[in-house]
Amino acid sequence: KDFPPGPRAIPVFGNLLQLNLESPLADMEKLAKRYGNVYSLFIGARPMVVINGVQALKESLGRQRCFLLGETKKPNGQSCRSTHAPGVVLADFGPCWRDHRRFGLMILRNFGLGKRSMEQRILGEIHTVIKVLDESVGKAMDPHLLFHNAASNVICQVLFAKQFDYDDEFMTFFVSLFHETSKIINGRWGMIYDSIPMVRSLPLPFQKAFRMFKAAHERRLQMLAESKQTRVPGKPRHFIDCYLDELDKACASLTVNRRDEDSTFSEDQLCALILDLHFAGTDTSANTLLSAFLYLTNYPRTQERCQREIDTVLDGKDQVSFEDRHKMPYVQAVIHEIQRKANTVPLSVFHCTTEDTELMGYSIPKGTIIIPNLCSAMVEEGQWKSHHEFHPENFLNDQGEFVKPEAFMPFSIGPRTCLGEGLARMELFLILVTLLRKFRFIWPEDAGEPDFVPVFGTTQTPKPYRMKVQLRGADMKNPNQTSSSNCD
Ligand code: HEM
């Protein structure tokens, strides 16, 4: 009674067959038009409630007690990880999640988030990206792996104090793990696995994800063993050392007053947490950067206007700093508009009601899976000057100042909001500004029409594309080299 309305479900499949599982987003938009901003779906026998639009998202995700991440992902997440520890992204609301979220945030801050050192790490990584782009000057190149490698290396510096060569086996293994499994876990195979238990042991694509996660677990155990052998307690070099220091503290309190059973820290949980941070910190930022260059090459006037603002603000400076963003309202607006259009994590991470609750007049029982449709807010009519077009002015007021509407929520909102938002915003700004200052990016003549519709997954990825790279100083020698596509 009073459960949100939705399409009629059929036995075994629920509403699965009514959704285009390649990308259910368009179907979900149609269902919201028909049933309203809070509607229900059955994926297999499991009831789910889809939340759409700014108001319903704020009312649900913003709550402290209900709508926190729950059991949804557990079967899938646990077997994927090859460990029983929940990590943080898929952890139930409770002490383990709270302790590890707090710990993760503290380590990111201590390793320089908001301070200069994280900035220096990102800028150091950009040098490698520039080297790769320098080698491609005058040619059309496929940027797909480049940004995954760069984003992975930024987070690897925090986790392992290591920067890998882009062709290093560790790097190629993890980048393909993130790239491939993000499509399997939350694409159609993930939905089928979650909702139809009888297919779980069949040789279907999710078995590949399990194999890859098992291999990843072996590598994390190896990293852990190496760190344990070489560490000096109390002198942490990286995230793993900090965590091991924390474990030492828990063991010490065990000897003193046996309070250690309260501790949620364990080596298993460390392995799960490393994977969470590495995965979440790579695929999201990299795919947002890929979307950025897809738009910038096809909106050359927008690209040029960014470059003019960058040239003016950085005149005489060696390199950009994160503080400079306050003097670059147009660049900020473009980055935010790219994130709005990219919809990198369109359905956030599924949540679950932790108790019986009410939302917008509907009753939702404890244990119901909640799908926060973040992209519904990003294209909601009435929230934006132009909700369907690529339009950086969505983030500028009449005085040309940068403003952020409340409907902008690519990092989700509420207590489970993205833990890496600060790092991601720093990466996007520093990487885009540095590259736009040095290079011009052009849509190649033979590339045909751009396809802005991404490949659906936990994280969405632009379809493969190539871009031509030109040194900006060389513009004058080659004045006719313009993008063959001009959408602005
Ligand atoms: C453009 C880049 C990024 C986007 C769009 C993004 C988006 C998101 C979203 C939508 C969630 C789900 C929040 C929810 O459950 O309501 C999330 C969670 C999370 N993200 Fe990100 N993210 C990005 C970058 C990063 C980075 C760089 C890191 C790593 C440091 C990171 C770490 C995490 C973690 C650990 C969580 C789980 C938080 C929790 O459950 O408490 N993310 N992110």
From TrEMBL:
Biological processes per GO annotation: organic acid metabolic process; xenobiotic metabolic process
Q: Which Pfam families match?
A: p450 (PF00067)
| Superkingdom per UniProt | Eukaryota
Instruction: Write down any Gene Ontology CC term.
Output: cytoplasm
Residues engaged in binding heme: 418
Q: Which UniProt keywords apply?
A: Heme, Iron, Membrane, Metal-binding, Monooxygenase, Oxidoreductase, Signal
**What is the name of this protein?**
Putative cytochrome P450 2F2-like
- Species in which this protein is naturally found: Scophthalmus maximus
